[in-house]
Amino acid sequence: MCLKDMHLPTPALSSPLRIGNIEIRNRVALAPMSGVTDLPFRTLAWRFGAGFVVTEMVASRELVGNASESWARLKNSGIKPHIVQLAGREAHWMAEAAKIAAANGADIIDINMGCPAKKVTGGYSGSALMRDPDHALSLVEATVKAVDVPVTLKMRLGWDENSINAPLIARRAQDAGVQAITVHGRTRMQFYTGKADWDAIRAVREVVSVPLVANGDVDTVADAQEILQRSGADAVMAGRSSQGRPWHVGVLAGGAGHPEQAEIADIFVEHYEMMLEFYGADTGLRHARKHVGWYLDRFASDLSGTEKGAILTSTDPKSVAARASDAIRSSRAPLSSEGIAA
Fold first, then answer.
1. Are the beta carbons of 297 and 244 closer than 8 angstroms?
2. Which CDD domains match (predicted)?
3. Whole-angstrom Cα distance, residue 209 to residue 180?
4. Of 42, 126, 146, 164, which sits most exposed with the smallest number of CB within 10 A?
5. What are phi and psi of 184, to 5 degrees?
């Protein structure tokens, strides 16, 4: 019987999932986002109940070349499984980087074939690989052969609406040994515009039997349940909806409820201090600015533009932490049932 003829029940988001020989504690994942899901963010997301988290994209050749940024992105803090996402355009460097990642604690290697950023696709990596399936599969095959840990793949529907080839690549990747596949329901040329096409992901479900993870515009519990039902996927992945609320994925998975305003302020301060410690005060302050902005937009939306600007441009970490947390704690902007400003 073909998979497309089977009508399997939609799995519970809180139920475990297995990728190869690795057990995942639930079916809601934090998407890898370059410049966002660093070790502090992943640590918090994991603590709040994310099923699994994935490192920021690690450039394969730069990791082999001992680049400090790549090694920083590879770090872990006891999160299990430790999933490292690799990006690249050459099979040799992908294989060598996979060996390094596995030797340094990676439990799963994820291949990036979905990043739409111009600086990535301009180097023929990320979603640009979908324009040449044969070449893309050479990277998959080399990575699978290089390591004993499970290898997974994250991609989009295709490069553009005229080249929707995710089912083709997914089937070939499974045949090459990939043990789970994540599909973002947009093409590369869509970037993040419009609405993710959850129904289109089902075409991948119909040709693969490995776990399928559906990604794109998952913001609420209802979204997570609907994308599973419409795509036929086994799990969901949330990205941008987690910005400014690292607990969000855990909430989608049925963990603890949304924190109250005072607790959000405390989580913000902890997150901010973790970033300062991880990067160092000066670099950490710069890296944290976008996170500060997301927290303020979500949980202190009634803050004046002048005060928000002053917080974001301050070079005094203690002042930023104090003023932003006070703004969150004292905000009178009502929160919706989903824990964001209504």
1. yes
2. DUS_like_FMN (cd02801)
3. 9
4. 164
5. -85, 130
Residue pair 58/91 in contact (Cβ under 8 Å)? The answer is no
- 109, 102 Cβ separation under 8 angstroms: yes
Q: What is the pLDDT of residues 118-149, one digit of tens each?
A: 889 888 899 999 999 999 999 999 999 999 99
- Looking at residue 335, what is its pLDDT? 66
Residues 6+ apart with CB under 8 A from 195: 217
Annotated binding site: 85, 154, 184, 239-240
What is the β-pairing status of strands 17-19 and 22-24? antiparallel
Residues designated as active site: 115
**Would you say 110 and 94 are in contact if contact means Cβ atoms under 8 Å apart?**
no
pLDDT digits (tens, 9 = 90+) for 1-23: 344 444 567 899 999 999 999 99
| Sheet architecture: strand order including 83-87 | 52-53, 28-30, 235-238, 212-215, 181-184, 151-156, 108-113, 83-87, 58-59
Q: Is the pLDDT of residue 342 over 60?
A: no
**Alpha carbon of residue 304 to chain centroid:** 31
pTM (2 d.p.) = 0.93
Residue ranges of the binding site for FMN: 85, 154, 184, 239-240
N- to C-terminal Cα separation, the chain = 47
For residue 292, what are the contacts with CB-CB under 8 A and spacing of at least 6?
Answer: 268, 272, 311, 312, 320, 324
Q: Look at the alpha carbons of 279, 282, 283, 284 in this order and tell me if their dihedral is positive or negative.
A: positive
- Compute the distance between CA of residue 26 and CA of residue 3 in angstroms, rounded to an integer: 23
CA-based Rg of the chain, rounded to a whole angstrom? 20
Task: Return phi, psi of residue 257, to 5°.
Answer: -70, 175
DSSP assignment string, 3-65: GGG--PPPPPTTS-EEETTEEESSSEEEPP-TTTS-HHHHHHHHHTT-SEEBPPPEEHHHHHT
What's the CA gap between 227 and 287, in Å, rounded? 32
